[in-house]
Design a protein that fits this description.
Structural class of chain B: mainly alpha
Number of strands of chain B: 2
Distance between the termini of chain B: 23 Å
Radius of gyration of chain B: 22 Å
CATH superfamily of the largest domain in chain A: P-loop containing nucleotide triphosphate hydrolases
Number of domains of chain B: 1
Helix content of chain B: over 70%
Shape of chain A: globular
Oligomer: heterodimer
Strand content of chain B: under 5%
Number of strands of chain A: 20
Distance between the termini of chain A: 41 Å
Chain lengths: 508, 341
């Protein structure tokens, strides 16, 4: 592989971007960035959320026009004014949530907009199906082209998206977080296809948060930070920590800044919590200053348990004791009043009101405190929002900016700030760092430690073993709605967790 | 913060643009310009228009609908709608007529009108919040139901013979040319505006309209607030029934027929998003005046009713299309804020 890389390393770039700048009201999204893509090579684009990666992809696909700079295709300056221009230039993007049409067939999805025509100018259905089958075969996807897209798995949809990219003879393929929703095996399939695309001389821009994938699949790298290109070159010349340093602008010696907290008395006791379908007989105790990790496979009932603790759903049986007093939680409002808050997994759907301003989101559960006799006091709300925005190092152009215009990591900071502003005793964080970049992740982790240090009790649901091992004082493992074990931090290994979560007790 | 804090901590401003520039760019400002233009056009088109008594008459055209529109604005902002309001007027008016036949006095009639409005609103609210049915379906159903009861009760009869003092609510003047109806509408608008824009209740209504699930997860009693809004809209329809019945002095089952669309038009013309989540009371108030001026101006010019409904229809389509087209133009001029990440 190395030999091959070296022989093509000198090939002329297919695509070059020079001095590209783009700004939005209040934000300089890209400042004078450069990027070079060469045939037969995978270039990894790395950067925190908000570093400008999405803006760059949108410029390359003709959705945004840059304020300054030039784009060269095969050395010729080219303007990408519309999505059609980008397609004509041979640039295709496969997005995180690929835009395909659920109710159309696989073949129609592949050929939409450039379907083969017969002599009468009508869609040549048989040619379309035959060519679809050939394209799908070339990506190892054994799918009937007549299948409706909605009947496919997410992994299969990705393969359809790749087949679509191949159908337009693209020379530059952009993959924006292609593995985010894929299973292990699907990722392997994807990597095999990327290898094949490389062999065909395509240039691939691979955007991912996952470093192990970058090391496996990419040849070159480009790092963006705060809208600037801070490094580029061959991956062979750098180390993992070099990349992390470039990305966050500082060295992250400790990815999990867990500080040993002083753990106090029991604050929350859950006894025999049951739900008709989701979980059964869950009991644990939570102490002041403690971070309790809740680990398990997807579907083990962890989120459902948390939502029951927060009053979104009601348990069919079980008792809850907060600070020694039995309580019942029948609604989120009651949970908040009791001092239990929940940072949900789905930020956009449950966590934040995206079209509303940062300040309105932060104050929403605390309105009874910022208002006087039901009348809103904006000054109080701004003060509250500013306190938490600064504590969480929020990046925004103003506190009146809609939350939906922030990057994922900053949205999460707003949601966490909103709940801290209520002055809770117990905070439940459901996959708090899912889909956010390393920098924001470290900020969230540091903040969790800080909160625990202040005596708050934290329940952290996570599917990431390093996060659980790095952050939790104690770990409760759930499997199929039941407790599969509780472990102390000391001496806990990934193997123990996985064995408990999967039920493979063979060696234990 | 500890290790993760950035070296440069920036202070985030409250807002980027000032109060003035936001006000000038708003939909309400545009509507106000339209209202003034129509006012001028009317006074040029007809020599009688500027007469104070004539202007006073003009307000009767829309105050009853506008009272409902203020309540409806809350409901639409919260992501719901009530299409049964005109039918509630018919039912409330029928109930008042029946009571008047039995000799109930003016205070009793008002209580009955408001009570029927509240009961109908509660019925709508219960179906929507308790059984989780979509409000557009529920209120299309109750629209037929409420008016159907009025038809069954009245047949081709007409209730007349309301007590003399009952006439004040629809025909009385508080001072000089200022009618009770106008004062009542302005009072409702003032209270509505304060509640929507200055209280936590109003903030919660916006939150519900923008993301009902997110509002639930923020501890907002979504169902209870929606129920209250249906109740208020029913009450507003009841109040409109009192004023309209008093003004006409009679009740037919076809009373206020088709008003629900004019009310919704006022709300949407006022800048309330039909998808929920945004809009203001001042916008709805200005829109009520605009619609009143347009229909009254056309009336002065002897434009037939069917042409008027064409004008109303065209207005409705225009105001729904305009913001979407404007947004598209703006998006073309500069790619939106949204992709800044």
């Amino acid at each position: 592989m190395n030999m091959l890389n070296q022989s093509v390393a000198l090939a002329a770039p297919i695509l070059e971007m020079r001095g590209i700048s783009k700004s939005f009201p209040g934000v300089q999204a890209l400042a004078d960035v450069a990027l070079t893509l060469r045939p037969g090579r995978v270039t990894a684009l790395i950067g925190e959320n908000g570093a400008g990666k999405s803006t760059l992809v949108k410029i390359l696909t003709g959705i945004y026009r840059p304020d300054a700079g030039e784009i060269l295709i095969d050395g010729t300056p080219t303007r990408l004014e519309t999505a059609a221009d980008a397609q004509a230039a041979g640039i295709t993007a496969i997005h995180q949530e690929t835009v395909l049409f659920d109710d159309l067939s696989v073949a129609e999805n592949i050929w939409l907009g450039h379907a083969p025509r017969n002599r009468l100018g009508l869609v040549d259905w048989s040619a379309m199906r035959a060519r679809s089958a050939a394209l799908l075969h070339s990506v190892d996807a054994d799918i009937d082209p007549r299948t409706r897209l909605k009947d496919l798995s997410i992994g299969q949809r990705h393969l359809v998206a790749i087949a679509r990219a191949l159908s337009v003879e693209s020379r530059v393929v952009i993959m924006d977080e292609p593995t985010a929703a894929l299973s292990h095996k699907e990722v392997e399939d994807l990597f095999r296809i990327i290898g094949r695309l490389k062999a065909k001389g395509k240039a691939i821009l691979f955007i991912s948060h996952k470093f192990e994938e970058v090391w496996r699949i990419a040849d070159d790298f480009a790092v963006f930070r705060d809208g600037k290109a801070v490094g580029a070159g061959g991956l062979a010349d750098v180390t993992h920590s070099d990349l992390v340093r470039m990305m966050v602008g500082r060295s992250v010696d400790q990815v999990f800044p867990k500080t040993p907290a002083r753990i106090g008395e029991t604050i929350l006791k859950v006894e025999g919590y049951c739900h008709p379908t989701e979980f059964d007989g869950v009991s644990f105790a939570l102490r002041r200053g403690e971070i309790l990790g809740l680990y398990g496979l997807v579907g083990a009932g962890r989120s459902e348990l948390c939502q029951a603790l927060f009053g979104v759903t009601r348990p069919s049986a079980g008792a809850l004791t907060l600070e020694g007093r039995p309580i019942t939680v029948r609604s989120p409002a009651e949970a908040i009043r009791a001092g239990i808050v929940y940072v949900p997994e789905e930020r956009g759907r449950h966590g934040a009101i995206l079209p509303m301003a940062i300040v309105e989101n932060v104050s929403l559960p605390s309105l009874h405190r910022t208002a006087r006799r039901g009348f809103i006091r904006m000054a109080e709300e701004f003060a509250l929002a500013r306190t938490y925005a600064e504590r969480l190092d929020l990046r925004a152009s103003s506190l009146s900016q809609p939350v939906g215009t922030l990057s994922g990591g900053n949205q999460q900071k707003v949601v966490i700030g909103k709940w801290l502003a209520t002055g809770p005793k117990v905070i439940i964080l459901d996959e708090p760092t899912k889909g956010i970049d390393i920098g924001s992740k470290a900020a969230v982790h540091a903040f969790m430690s800080e909160l625990a240090g202040e005596g708050l009790a934290v329940i952290m649901v996570s599917s990431e073993i390093p996060e659980i091992l790095g952050m939790a004082d104690r770990v409760v493992v759930m499997r199929e709605g039941r407790m599969a074990g509780a472990f102390d931090r000391e001496g806990l290994t990934p193997e123990v967790l996985v064995r408990a979560a999967t039920g493979n007790e063979g060696g234990a | 913060m500890t290790t993760a804090a950035s070296p440069t901590r920036r202070t985030i401003p409250d807002r980027l643009d000032g109060r003035m520039s936001r006000a000038l760019k708003s939909w309400e400002a545009l509507l106000l310009v339209v209202a003034v233009a129509i006012f001028i056009a009317n006074s040029l088109a007809s020599p009688y228009f500027l007469d104070p008594w004539n202007l006073s008459d003009a307000t009767f055209n829309f105050t009853e609908k506008a009272v409902i529109a203020v309540a409806m604005a809350f409901l639409v902002i919260a992501g719901e709608i009530d299409l049964s309001v005109a039918a509630i007027i018919a039912l409330a008016s029928t109930a008042m007529g029946a009571a008047a036949q039995m000799g109930v006095g003016a205070p009793g009639l008002v209580a009955i009108g408001l009570g029927v409005g509240l009961a109908c609103g509660a019925f709508n609210g219960l179906l929507v919040t308790r059984f989780g049915l979509p409000s557009i379906v529920v209120t299309i159903g109750t629209m037929s139901l409420f008016r159907g009861i009025a038809y069954v009760t009245l047949g081709d009869q007409v209730y007349k013979g309301y007590p003399a003092d009952f006439a004040w609510f629809g025909q009385g003047y508080v001072w000089w040319v200022i009618s009770f109806e106008l004062v009542f509408f302005l009072a409702v608008a003032l209270v509505g505006g304060i509640v929507l824009h200055r209280t936590t209740f109003g903030r919660k209504v916006y939150a519900i309209g923008n993301n009902p699930l997110g509002a639930t997860f923020s501890g907002i009693p979504v169902e209870r607030i929606k129920f209250t809004l249906f109740l208020m809209t029913g009450l507003a329809a009841g109040a409109a029934a009192v004023m309209l019945t008093s003004r006409l002095g009679s009740t037919r089952p076809s009373i206020a027929f088709g008003w629900e669309l004019e009310v919704v038009t006022m709300v949407v013309l006022g800048g309330v998003s039909i998808l929920g989540g945004s809009g203001t009371i001042p916008g709805v108030v200005i829109a009520a005046f605009v619609m009143g001026l347009v229909t009254f101006g056309l009336g002065l010019l002897n434009v037939p009713g069917i042409v008027m409904s064409i004008v109303i229809g065209a207005m409705l389509i225009t105001v729904i299309a305009l913001p979407i087209l404007a947004r598209r133009v703006a998006a073309r001029r500069q790619s939106s804020n949204r992709g800044a990440a």
